[in-house]
Amino acid sequence: MEDQGGFNWQDPRIANLFATAAQTPFYKLWGDTITEISLHLAKMAEAKTLIEIGAGRGNLTRDMLIKMSSKNISVPLFASDANEAVLNNVAKLRDEFSNQQLQTHLWDVNNAPDDDLKKQIKEPVVLYERASITYATYGCLENIGQVADMIVLGDYFNCTGELFADDTMFDKIGVKPLFYKDVEPLILKHFPNQYLFDREVHDRTGIPNISLVIAWK
Ligand SMILES: C[S@@+](CC[C@H](N)C(=O)[O-])C[C@H]1O[C@@H](n2cnc3c(N)ncnc32)[C@H](O)[C@@H]1O
């Protein structure tokens, strides 16, 4: 892709690659963990709104809708993405889950959330995502902080400051390494409490990345 001018989401090879990767056991477990934790937090905090950013193919959206339906919960869910075509696809989930309150919303998290979204959401808000802010810039945390009370971020945050194999590999699919030392102060500015889900693994094995961050106001 580098030879052809750079990373391109519209390339069918990329679409196929992500579709296949999304069905692997690890990716499913990771998504299951993110949605389970987010819904659990939503219940504990009596959240009035769930926001998902970078919904993509709707893997997490579907997972969340399945979980809410099976637990007999219905919290309004705003699935957002920077790409309109992606959202048209996610909106189809409304037919499948007519018992749920799913809305789609165009939001490039590099920009502040628009008034339309702010007007529609009710606090407390739980916001979750996976592998989407790695395509945005650090500044997006400032924008996320404007609407969310609790966040669950599923990204590979580099904790050592040194590039590792994952970082080099992800770079090939358009992901820039997110150094936790740079991300942490931005998270803590809006969400002073944080829990690094796989910190123990990180500490014990020296694995250089953290894959799940939970933070709240
Ligand atoms: C790798 S996909 C992740 C999809 C989904 N979160 C999942 O885990 O299956 C990344 C998604 O992030 C979206 N994205 C990229 N940059 C974004 C931005 N600045 N704001 C919001 N979404 C963005 C892309 O359009 C794409 O749908």
Using the alpha-carbon principal axes, give the shape. Answer: globular
What's the level 1 CATH class? Answer: Alpha Beta
Topology-level CATH name: Rossmann fold
Number of helices: 10
Question: Taking strands numbered 1, 2, ... along the chain, how are they ordered across the largest sheet?
Answer: 3-2-1-4-5-10-8
What is the CATH architecture assignment?
3-Layer(aba) Sandwich
Word description of this protein:
- With 217 residues, the chain is an alpha/beta fold.
- Helix content is 41%, strand content 18%.
- It has ten helices and ten strands.
- Strand 4 (125-130), helix 7 (140-144) and strand 5 (150-154) form a beta-alpha-beta unit.
- Helix 2 (25-44) packs across helix 3.
- It is globular, with a radius of gyration of 17 Å.
- The mean pLDDT is 92.
- Bound molecules: S-adenosylmethionine.
- Residues 18, 22, 53-57, 59-60, 81-83, 86, 108-110, 129-132, 135-136 line the site of S-adenosylmethionine (SAM).
- S-adenosylmethionine binds at residues 18, 22, 53-57, 59-60, 81-83, 86, 108-110, 129-132, 135-136.
